[in-house]
Amino acid sequence: MKQIGHLSLYFFRKDIKQILSFGIIILITSLILNLATVLAMRIDPAYARQSDELHSADIDIVIPKATDSAALSDAVCGNTSVEQLEKQQAILQKAVMKDFRGTDFELNIMFYNWDDKRTVHQLSCLERSEETGANPIYLPLYISEFGEYPLNGSITFSIDGKNFTYTVAGVVQEMQYGNASAEIMGVFLPDNQYSRLADELQGSEVVNYAVRTVQGADDQTVLSNLRKTAEEHHSSVLFALTREAKKQSRMMVTNLLTMILAAFAVIVLLVSIFLCQFRIKNTVSEEMAQMGVLKSLGFTSGGIIRAIVLPYTVTALLFSAIGATGSYALLPSAVNVLALQAGFRFEVAFSGLALLLTVALLTGVTLVFTWLASGKIRRLHPITAIRGITDGKGVRKNHFAIAHTPGGVNWVLTLKQMAASAQQNVLLFVVLFVMTILIAFSGSLFYNVIIEPDHFMNTLSDESPDVILQVSSSDISSMKRTVGALDGAERVLSYSVVQLQVEEENAVAFVCEDFSKTRSDLCYEGRNPSSGSEIAIGSALAERLGCGIGETVLVTYADTSHAYRVVGLVQSVNNRGEICELTEEGFSAISEDKIRSLYVYLINDSDVDNFIDKTKAVCGENIVSAFNAAKKQSEAQSMYTAIVNIVIATVFAVTILIVLLILFVIIRSMITQRRQEYGIFKAMGYSGRQLVAQTAGSLIPVTVLAALSSSLLGLVWLPAVNNVIFGMIGAMKNHMEQPVSVLLLFATAEIIVTLLISLFLARPIKKIEAYSLIKE
Amino acid sequence: MKNTENKNNVILSARHLVKSFRSGDVEQSIINGLDLDIHKGDFTVIMGSSGAGKSTLMYALSGMDKPTSGSITFCGEEITSYNADKLAVFRRKHCGFVFQQIYLLDRMSLMDNALTAGLLIGGKKKEIIRRAEALFEKVNLPEVTWRKLPSQISGGEAQRAGIVRAVINRPEVLFADEPTGALNSNNSDAVLDVFTELNIDGQSIIMVTHDKKSALRGNRIIYLRDGKIFGECHLGEYTPDNTERNEKLNAFLAEMNW
Fold first, then answer.
1. What is the pLDDT of residue A390?
2. DSSP assignment of B46-89, as one string?
3. Is A285 on the interface with B (CB under 8 A)?
4. Which residue in chain B is spatially nearest to A412 when comparing CA positions?
5. What is the per-residue pLDDT across B105-122, written as a single tens digit (0 to 9) for each?
6. Range of the domain at B235
């Protein structure tokens, strides 16, 4: 055993730099893998724990206060699946939050009474101001942190043209309506402020039925039953969400990130497997004579294999442990970003199990693959080994005969060098092919988010005009003409977003005079409605109602219902597919109210503020509010651009690091194995520069092949990946494109970087002296 | 073509040549202030006991290794100040090497080994291929062998291919380090015959050897001891059966206590 230890130390010392390169790759893998494992293992329980601690409801149903009754609550309580019901008073209004992260943000806001006692959906106060200023308000974490409304700062809600300004008196953590994905959020006003707002907004009061179900109940079924109960008691459901639906919308980014991290870790792990196999096979061939001597001295094949495998296994063990431990340094930052999006703070504590799994997986995989790679030692006869059966002796073919290959001698020698290294070519091809997948994905993001942002934004957003005007004038047609005639206006559409019911499901309805004139086409199957009897419904509705194109659905708004024929399926990421489209004519069948919002599209969207001023000056009091939608879109776009820039920079940095490490190992192995060959070339009169160029050049054909084939294959798999990713968040049709030119541009950048790294790493060839041939 | 006496035909000259190696704290001199002129057309043989500095001298003269001090002049041009790239260009244009271990590139056929050197200095590919073919024929390697890999031929064939590679660029000097050291008797004779033939055609040769039979092929014998020229002997023109040269060499080597 002691001898094996000494021998192992010898192999470690001999290959120390290459083993360390392998170690760094294992460290990166372990860091990413542990991060993904910890997130996957800890966040769900953290969410569940937080929900349990705050005694969260399993179902929330919002109904108008006017339609609430004791009979309804008795009926709800009478449902055998309902364990507990708590009715919570609130004011529900569509409000614009002014200066939300630098822009105006419109959302359905539930104003709750802070002083109401809660047993369900309890609130956990994260921060509270010592001074209670005028008009205090308590904000959920998402609005406070993501919207950038700090403690003691002010927040203004604009409701129907009226501004309500409050001072942030505290920040709470709650699991009810915690982030914007659900399209509804709760804020909390002390009793005085609540009463005052209720007086101001007569008729906006609602009741939130916070329902806790019995263990094992299917919340979706219970919700459907409760909807029927509400209907039977002549109460309309304004909003309804199950705990699972809330969780999905809150954890969407977290789950996506976890998946991406895990996929990334697998890719890097594949690279490290190939790398250690390559290195071990090279060690066997470089140390063949020594192995023959060892065998002749009585070492067994198993002993030698153990000595070779040990340094890699120990390195994998150490570096995976360091990487997994190091991931905890990144975890708080990752958790903060995710918490900001998810709208609740969670502690991710050290997970011994995650660390154990990460380390065991990486060490185990290393052990298995190094063991397999060193199997050749068993077949090695001591005398054959001592005589030194070098690679050259195994050569059977003279690739690229100089006399018959066109081109100069340096070019032909480059080809020869390439052809002589099948193993290294396979390693390089696999690594670059895999890394190019990431590069191609970055290229696709770069094009669709930065060069052609409409592709990305139109996939994610609903209709996005430049200006949204809320008007009070009853003569909408005349207002449309006036606004449309203003300098800079391209077109004006009557467009409104209302809440209604399709069969028994709640849905957001987009009502428009003519969908063919909108900027975003939300329809992914069939067509948009064009007459008063037609409707297009969202994917989630279609699935839940089991209803397709050609069928008829009953739509209810307030107390009026009307049947429409489904002509298309539409998507909406923001509303998770719970949407529908109606024409203005169609909407008039269920509502006598005229549409009072106008979507204005400008010729030049950089001059929106001026246009709004002009509109206000011309239309005066007929304008209730004017919303710079282009600015909101641009803000969102700049956020996505920043994220994509980070993604691209990260992918490139990791790719360069991995390619650098792989090339280091490959070129180092080449230099070690071909030291004598380089000496012979130098004796003949080849300069160091020529040999460096030949060596780096011999890697180029494989690099080009891997980068180009992987990039071009991106044309096939990128649309599929985009379909999966966007489909997961409700965008059944995405507008992402994969132009060949961008993919090739990114692949070219990768090839150039690889060439430069190869030239840099091959520089030690210059130091090999022709005379070293003789000295050795 | 023996030009030993013609002082104007000096192609390679060493003055006050010193080569030393550091081993730990100890500096060991291998060549100690040596002066030497090599004449065009000569077949110079460097002999001496192990560690006398024979190979060190030869590789210093050829620009393969840099001397510690002193100067080496090739055709009137000082080469000791050349950097690695300039020395590479110098070697490719003016020197050919034949090694004891042969050092053919084992992934290439014999023809490619020759062309790898031949095409390095430029020229028309077809002409260089023809020249390589002529040289292979000259060293008695049939066409079928040219396409073989070094691992598929005998040591003697490999060394003859090594000679073709060394002389394909028509070097001013052919340096040979124990060229028969790894060969059996028959193969040795064949290789030495090639050297003799080349020399008769005017090729200047510097050969390091331990072997008396090989040394007999030269016309000038230099005996090194402790890094200095200890003795020198001129054998005259080579003939296959020359008892006089043999006796002269024996006497010289006896004088050198060899």
1. 47
2. EEESTTSSHHHHHHHHTTSS--SEEEEEETTEE-TT--HHHHHH
3. no
4. B116
5. 988 999 999 999 999 888
6. 7-104+166-255
Q: Which residue has the higher pLDDT, B61 or A385?
A: B61
Say yes or no for a CB contact (<8 Å) between A766 and B165: no
Whether the per-residue pLDDT at A114 is higher than 60: the answer is yes
Query: Is pLDDT larger for residue A180 or for residue A249?
Result: A249
Q: Which whole-number Å values give the CA distances from A716 to A215, A441, A706, A739, A743, in the listed order? A: 46, 12, 16, 12, 12
Does B46 reside within a domain? yes
Looking at the structure of chain B, the number of domains it has is 1
pLDDT band at A595 (very low <50, low <70, confident <90, very high): confident
Neighbours of A352 (CB within 10 A): 8
Chains A, B: CB contacts under 8 A, how many? Answer: 102
Say if the Cβ atoms of B147 and A683 lie within 8 Å.
no
Does the beta carbon of A360 lie under 8 angstroms from any beta carbon of chain B?
no
Summarised one tens digit per residue, pLDDT across range A2-18 is: 667 888 888 888 888 88
- Rounded CA-CA distance B218/A628 in Å is 98
Do B91 and A402 lie within an 8 Å CB cutoff?
Answer: no
Chain A residues within 8 A of B147 when measuring between CB atoms: 398, 401
Task: Please state whether the predicted TM-score (pTM) of the whole model is above 0.80.
Answer: no
In this complex, the residue of A416, A766, A773 whose CB is nearest that of residue B108 is A416
Kindly determine whether residue B64 and residue A766, on different chains, have CB atoms separated by under 8 Å: no
Pairwise CB contact (< 8 Å): B91 & A420? no
Nearest CA in chain A to B124: A408
Assign residue B170 the CATH number of its domain.
3.40.50.300
**Percent of chain A that is helix, strand, coil (3-state, to 5):** 60, 20, 20
pLDDT of residue A669: 85
